[in-house]
Amino acid sequence: MSAKSSVVTSILDQLSALGHKKVVYCSDPDTGLKAIIAIHDTTLGPALGGTRMWNYATETEALEDVLRLSRSMTYKAAITGLNLGGGKAVIIGDSRKGKSEAMMRSFGRFIKNLNGEFITAEDLGTTTRDMEYIGMETKHVTGVPESIGGMGDPSPATAKGIFLGMKACVKEVFGTDTLAGRSVVVQGIGNAGEHLVELLRQENVEVFISDINEERLHQVARKYKAKPVDADKIFGLDVDIYAPCALGATVNDRTIPRMKFAIIAGSANNQLADEQVHGQLLLEKNILFAPDYLINAGGLINCYSELTGFGKKRTMQLTENIYDATRNVIKMSKADKIPTILAANRIVEKRISDIKKIKSSF
Ligand code: NAD
Q1: How far apart are CA 362 and CA 353, in angstroms?
Q2: Catalytic residues
Q3: Which of 119, 61, 131 is nearest to 87 (CA)?
Q4: Is 255 within 8 Å of 187 (Cβ atoms)?
Q5: Which atom of ligand 1 is the closest one to the Cα of 210?
Q6: How far apart are CA 68 and CA 75, in angstroms?
Q7: Which of 140-149, 210-219, 228-237, 336-345 is predicted least confidently?
Q8: For ligand 1, atom 25: residue with the closest CA
Q9: What spacing in Å lies between the alpha carbon of 61 and ligand 1's midpoint?
Q10: In the predicted model, what is the mean pLDDT of residues 281-290?
Q11: pLDDT tens digits for 150-174?
Q12: Cα dihedral 339/205/301/358 (nearest 10)
């Protein structure tokens, strides 16, 4: 087999392994655009997902990332009851140096050619300004600035969802959903993390915070009377709840043995390094894990509202459903003695399969 055909086979194998429908490679040498759009599933509606700009070391790494992230978007939309499918895009390059209006508009034209099958929004390395440029070429973009009719920053809605998912877990573990008197460590106090700290402090929670950005750490600590902790001390802390709000894969073989937490609930995507292995380890250790893609869906709900024309009130109502959805997942996890992440996956897969069937009838 030639090298060329083995590459083609391997990409198609990756698509079929994760259940993807389509991958589009976008190249525009005039603007320097190199991008990949992955569409995972469109049973429930158009595939919605952010565009991430990142300096990937290789194309293979970029493809792996976009496949993994687009699949998560299918799950996030489905579990929240939204009529959206899952997709994602990555632009390969340095977002601080390599971006231009022309590049973003060129990318917008690739999205336009997908005729609504894919809708994008901002993500790491892209901004609402970039969405505005994309929006000059296609209407299939959301997350544009409030000043031009968008819903603006999704982080408050994301934090609200995390807060409610946390309450649903606290209800399970401590018998009441009040957070007052509990202790939480928030890892990463960026856009989502800071809003979460604010909500927790309003409810008299003892909050510990950690961030690699020292200046921000002390500023947020002062503002909300939170207690800063060193990054390497987080996993040994004797607190009720760990809220990962920075990076993925922080729940892994190395960290789980050190954990004394009762609950893990945060905004970061893909918190479990391995869903099966670490989901099971947490279950055995009696640590309740709030599925990340469920409780961090507030940002996606915000984008959905922008598309459908719902206002802020309706967005908050939809976000509030995260509490009941989390309770349902916990219920299934207990009844079937399976990790919460697998219970959430089952609920998603059933919804998609049920809707697929009704769509096949006239
Ligand atoms: P952000 O970039 O604003 O904040 C991330 C923060 O984490 C920064 O302050 C950064 O300094 C800190 N950080 C990075 N590495 C760290 C480490 N090792 N230890 C401690 N702190 C570290 O990002 P965000 O928008 O707040 O998103 C945070 C996470 O939540 C991301 O994984 C993102 O994908 C996810 N998420 C965010 C939203 C949203 O609406 N903002 C929605 C869904 C999911």
Answers
A1: 17
A2: 88
A3: 119
A4: no
A5: 20
A6: 11
A7: 140-149
A8: 191
A9: 21
A10: 98
A11: 777 788 999 999 999 999 999 999 9
A12: 30
| CA atoms of 142 and 50, how far apart (whole Å) | 9
DSSP character at residue 258: G
Contact assessment for residue 302 and residue 157, using Cβ atoms and an 8 Å cutoff: yes
Please say if the pLDDT value at position 181 is more than 50.
yes
Contact 293, 344 (CB under 8 A): yes
**Distance between CA 51 and CA 191 in Å, rounded?**
18
Residue 60 above 80 pLDDT?
A: yes
Whether 130 and 99 have beta carbons less than 8 Å apart is answered as yes
The rounded Å distance from CA 97 to ligand 1 centre is 21
Rg over CA atoms, the chain:
20
What structural domains and CATH numbers belong to the chain?
21-70+86-147 (3.40.50.10860), 155-350 (3.40.50.720)
Tokens of 142: 């959301």
Report the distance separating Cα 250 and Cα 269, nearest Å: 10
- Total-model pTM: 0.92
